[in-house]
Each structure stands twice: as structure tokens, then as C-alpha cells.
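Standup notes, protein team

Yesterday: finished cleaning the Rhizobium bangladeshense set.
Today: biotin--[biotin carboxyl-carrier protein] ligase structure.
Blockers: none.

Input for biotin--[biotin carboxyl-carrier protein] ligase:
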Amino acid sequence: MVSGRQRRISLDDFRHEALSETSSTNSECLARARAGDPGNLWVTAERQTGGRGRRGRLWVSERGNLYASLLLIDPAPMERLGSLPLAVAVAVHQAIHRVLPPGGEPLEVKWPNDILIGRKKTCGILVEGEGLPDGRYALIVGIGINVSVMPDNPLYPVTCLRQHASAASPEELFAHLFAAMAELLEVWDQGRGIAEITARWRAIACGIGEKITVNLPDQSISGQFAGIDDNGLLMLDTGAGRIMSIAAGDVFFG
């Protein structure tokens, strides 16, 4: 694992490979990692034939949207990796904000890292990791943003950037994402910058103080969204002064 403080992260530390089509940019990054890639590699595709979301759900991936994955190798000690999805969400929010005209519906993050415009999902993020045979740890950050195509989603209301007067192309949006991610990874600082990351995340969070339902693999729990703790866990006030910390789940408002 990485130890000590790294030198400052810059845009020059990252590479980008643009593909016309692939089964999944996450799968492509993982294959590169297994083949010895040193990391800090972005892979984008105009179309995915086997895109996936959380819990193995299909992620429809037609041309016109942004499909991007970032391969990181040993990005932080294992005990500090849990805060990385929050940093990623802040970076994606920042990139989307830069291509939306002012005065539109609220652009927010739904815990842990869905991006909503007017309470409708426009981006999903899938973080996956694997220990490699040579002892390194590969972590892949997959990002799918609805730019001009809006796939049906039976779980959540969805939208796309075109519906909110953004004229940005997937390539222009990726340029903003490329820069924002480098900046936020520097702030995150291998997990040492979690306090700044959680502060930025809370400032753009959706639904703090509202009633929510969290679907877990084996049950659904309702309560008031009390925010996130300093490690990024969701805090659910279930009543009678009891706060439950949740590491992973699907959040529904109302």
C-alpha cells in the first residue's frame, strides 16, 4: 500500500484512451490492471454493450452520453478507501455544474454518489475494486452521465443534460470531468482530506433532514436523513434518538 505523502497530483499524471465501443469501460480498466497497467488511466467509450450499475443492474449505454472509467492503483490504504466515492461525487457534480446554464433546477448529490437535477437522476457512479496477483490493488471508478439520451429507469425518475439546456457534448463534459477529478483527488489526498471532502459533499447534498427509505439487501428502513458522518456513512434517524449508520444502500425520498 501507498505510504507517506505523494507529490501533488496534476493533470499530467492521468492518461486517457477513447474507444468507440466496448463491453464496459469498468471491465476494460480491470483488464488493463490485470495486465500490469500502472493506473491513473481514463477509458471512455461512445457506446457500451454490457454496461452495468450497482448490484449488477444493466446500464443502458447508447451513443450520445458519457461513459467513462478511471483506473487507480493503490489509491490509499484500505481503511481510508471508503471516503473515495464521496470525492468522486463532488468531482462529477463540479464537472456537470460547469456545463449547465445558471438558474436551472437544483444540481445535487444523492447519497452516496448519484447526481440529480431537479430530483431526477442524470448520473450513476459504480466503484469496483480487485486485489491483483502482484499484490497491488486496482480500484475502478465508473461514471455514466446522461447527456442527450435518457434511458428508462423503473427505480428512479431520470433526466439528461439536454433537458436542462446544456449544449455540451460528451467530449466537452469529459474535459471538465478530467480536470475536476484530478483536483478532487488532490484534495482527498489518499483519504487524509476526508474532512474537506465531507464538507463539500454536505454542501451539495440532496434531502438532508427529509424522510427517506433505505433499501438494504435484506430489508428496508425508513427514517429522517440526518446527513453523513465524518467517514461518509449515511446517518438515519429512526426515532427515539437512535441514529443508524449505513455503509451501502439505495435511498428513496418521501
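Follow-up from PR in the comments: Helices lie at 25-34, 84-97, 170-188, 194-203.
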